[in-house]
Amino acid sequence: MSHASADSFVQSGIVARTLARRGRWRAPEILFWLAALASIWLLPDRHLILNEIAIIGLFAVSLDLILGYAGIVSLGHAAFFGLGAYTAGLIAKHFALDPLIGLVGAAATAAALGWVTSFLVLRGADLTRLMVTLGVALILAEVANQAAWLTGGADGLQGVIMPAILGRFEFDIFGTTAYVYSLAVTFVLFVIARRIVVSPFGLSLRAIRDNPLRARAVGIPVNARLIAVYTLAAAYAGVAGALLAQTTQFVSLDVIAFHRSADVLLVLVIGGTGYLYGGLVGAVVFKLLQDWLASITPQYWLFWIGLILIVLVLADRDRLTARLTAAWRARAPGPAGGAGPANGPHATPASGER
Amino acid sequence: MHRRTLLALAAAGLAATSLAGTTVGAQAQEIFKIGLILPMTGASASTGRQIEAAAKLYMAQNGDTVAGKKVQLIVKDDTGVADVTKRLAQELIVNDKVGAVAGFGLTPLALSVAPLATQAKVPQVVMAAATATITEASPFIVRTSFTLPQATQPMAEWASANGMKKVVTLVTDYGPGIDAEKTFTATFTKAGGTVENMRVPLANPDFSPFLQKVADAKPDALFVFVPSGYGAQFMRQFTERGLDKSGIKLIGTGDVTDDDLLNGMGDAALGVVTSHHYSAVHDSAENKAFVAAFKKAAGFRPNFMGVGGYDGMHVLYEGLKKTNGVGGEALVNAIKGMAWTSVRGPVSIDPQTRDIIQNVYIRKVEKVDGELHNVEFATIPNVKDPVKAAKAN
Fold it and tell me: Which residues belong to any copy of the Leucine-binding protein domain (chain B) (predicted)?
C-alpha cells in the first residue's frame, strides 16, 4: 500500500533477501497451527464445527488470494465452491472413488471454470467485476437447479456415501476424521498459498493490485498473472467445496447460493485481507460468533452479528490490531524495531489514542 | 505482517477458551432431550416460530416430565441451509445426546439429516417438510405434518367434480411443489380435464410474469402451491394483476391461505378454495381449546405448521409413555400405529410408512368474527399419502 517508490532500481539481491525474510515462518504462525493441531485432542466434541471452520477458512484463503493479493473483488466466489462440492459429491455417488481423488477432480473442474471466467473478470474495474462474478454464480446456481437429473435440484444430491480416506479412515459421526482431514488439506494448501504469495509471482500480484498501469509499465504481464491467480483461487475454492460435500456427505443448492459468496466476503472483512491468515481468523471468529449467538437467541442472532460487524468496521480492525501489537512489543521487546503503532500502514495521527 | 499474525494467535486462543467453555454440560440420565431444528431466521422463519410456540405450549399443558424423565427442548436455527442443519443435528446427537431430533422446515433439510438418524438410531420427527418421499429416507423418520400429494389429490377431485375443465398449476420448483404438480395433473387429467404446468423458483419468487401467462391462458382455475410463509406475496401479486376479478378461480393446497398470514391478505383472498388437513376454525372442542391456548401463549394464530409441531410432541410423549422412557428404535416402534384425536381431527401414524393418516378438508376463505378464515365445508376421511399407497399396491 505504501512504499512503491524505487521499484525499478531494486537489486536482485535485495529482492531475494526481502522475499526470504517475508517467507520465514514466525512464532505466532507456528503457534497458530499448533493450536489448530491441539484442538483435535483438546476439543473432541467440537469437531463438527471445527470442520466447518477449517473449510470456510480454506474458502476464505482462496478469496484472499484474488481479493487481498490481486485486488479482484468477487461476489460470486461460491460458483467455484459449489462446482467443487457437486463434483466431489457426484464422483462419490457414481464411482465411489477415494475422497482424495474427489478433491483432485473438484480442483480440476473448478480451475477449468475459473480459467474460462477469468477472461470475463479481466475486463472492467471493480463494479464490473462484482457484477460479472455475481452473474456467473447465479447462472451456475440456476443450472444446478434445472439439472435436477444430475444434481437432485432443490432437494439436494441424495445417496452420497463417502468411502474411507485411503481406504482406511472412515468418516465417523463425531466428525473427527472429517476435521482431521479438512484441517490437513487446509494446512497443505495454505502452505502452498503462503509459498506462492511470497514468491516473485506473489510480489507481482501485489504490484498489480496497487497500480495495474505501473505494473504493466515495469513489464509485468498483468493479464496472464491475473488469469493464473484467478484459476488458482478457483481450484482452492473447489477443494473447499469438495471438503464440505465429502464431510457432510450431502450437497444441496445452498453450496452455490449467494449467501455463501457473501459470507466468505464477510469472513475476510472480519479477518482482514492480504495476509492469508485473515481468512482463517475470520472463519474462526465468524463461525464461533454465529454458533454462540444462535444458541443463545435462535431468532435474533442475525441482529447481533450485524451489530458486531458494524462495530468492528467502525472501530477499525487495523487500529485494534495495532494496539494489540504495541502491547505485545511493550511486553517483549523483539528485534523488529520501531515501537508503537507508527510502524503499521495505517499510521494516522489518530491511532494509538484512547 | 507481524501484528496480524499476532491477531491470528489471539483469535485462536480466544477460540480455544470459548469452545472449551461451551463443552461443559451435565448429561444426567433422567433427562430426555429433544433437539428442535427449525428455520428461525430467513424466509421460512414463520414455520420456526409456529412450531417452537406449539412445542412449548404442548409441554406447558402436559408437563415436562414423562415416564419419569424430564423433557428438555433445545431449539436451534437451521438458517434454511442443509449442511448447517446436518451439523446441528450431528452436534445434538453426539454432544447433547438428544433422544430425538425434530422440526425440519424444508425437504432438503429433513433429507440431509436422515442418514444420521439411521446411523445413530435416533428418531427424527418431521413436523413440517412435506415431500412424499421423506419418510422413505430413513426407518427412523416419523412425520406429523402432511404430504403434498395427500392434500392435493382431494383438491383435484373436487375441482373436476365441480365442473372445472381447464386448470393451470403454479408451484414452487422444489420437492413438495413438484409433488403437488404431479399429483394434481395425474388426478385431474384422469378425470377428463386438461392441465398446464408452471414452476416458480424457490429462491426470491416473482410470480408476476407467470400470473400474466395465466391471465392469457384463461383457465377455469389456477391451482397454486407455495411454501408456508410465501402466500401473502402471492396473493398481493395475484390482486395487482387483477386476476381476482378475471373470473379465474383460485384453488390450491392450504399452504397458500396459511392461517398465519391469511388475515393480512385482505378481502382479495375471500372465496379461495383450498384443501388441507388443518384450519384454525376446525370445528371441534379440542381445536377451540388449542387455538385459545395458543393465541394466549404465543400472541398469534396457530397454522398447520404449529399443529405439526404440537402433534410431533404428542407422539414423542405418548411413545415414551409406552416404552417407559426408552428411546431409539423402541420409541419409533411405539409411535408406529399410534392413533389419537388431534386438534385437526382423527389421525394415526401408518405403521408401514410412518407417515400420518388424516382427514383432508375442502375449505373456502370466509369472514368469521371479522377475521379471514379457511372454513371447512367437505371432509375426505382418513387419507393416506397417495404416492406411497400406490407403491404398496
Answer: 33-366
A-chain residues within 8 Å CB-CB of B10?
A: 324
The grid coordinates listed for A219 are 513489464
Q: Are A133 and A75 in contact (CB under 8 A)?
A: yes
Q: Which residues of A touch B131 (CB under 8 A)?
A: 155
Break chain A down into helix, strand, coil percent, rounded to 5.
75, 0, 25
Here the cell at position A15 is 529482492
Q: What is the pLDDT of residues A246-286, one digit of tens each?
A: 998 889 888 999 989 999 999 998 888 888 999 999 999 99
Least confident of A285-299, A304-318, B117-131, B305-319: A304-318
Class level of CATH domain B31-146+284-354: alpha beta
Residue in chain A nearest B118 by alpha carbon: A173
The ranges assigned to domains in chain B are 31-146+284-354, 149-276+360-392
Q: Do domains B31-146+284-354 and B149-276+360-392 have the same CATH topology?
A: yes
Q: Which residue, B351, B213, B369, is CA-closest to B280? A: B369
CA A176 to chain CA centroid, nearest Å: 22
Residues, chain A: 354
Q: pLDDT by residue (tens digit) across B229-257?
A: 788 889 989 988 888 888 899 999 999 99
Rounded Cα–Cα distance for residues B364 and B274 (Å): 6
pLDDT score of A9 more than 60: no
Q: What is the mean pLDDT of residues B178-191?
A: 93
Q: Which of A29, A154, A285 sits opposite B174 (nearest CB)?
A: A154
For cell 414423562, name the residue.
Answer: B66
- Alpha-carbon distance B38 to B102, whole Å? 8
CATH code: domain B149-276+360-392 is 3.40.50.2300
Q: Which of B262, B227, B231, B289 shows the shortest CA–CA distance to B374? A: B262
| Contact yes or no for A46 and B22 at CB 8 A | yes
B79 vs A87, higher pLDDT: A87
Of B4, B45, B83, the CB nearest to A254: B83
Instruction: Give chain A positions within 8 Å (CB) of B3.
Output: 321-322, 324-325, 328, 344
Nearest-by-CA chain B residue for A243: B83
With CA atoms as reference, the chain A residue closest to B109 would be A155
CB A153 within 8 A of CB B79: no
pLDDT for position B354: 95
The pTM (predicted TM-score) of the whole model is: 0.82
Q: Is the ipTM of this complex over 0.90?
A: no
What is the rounded distance in angstroms from the CA atom of residue B247 to the CA atom of residue B250?
9
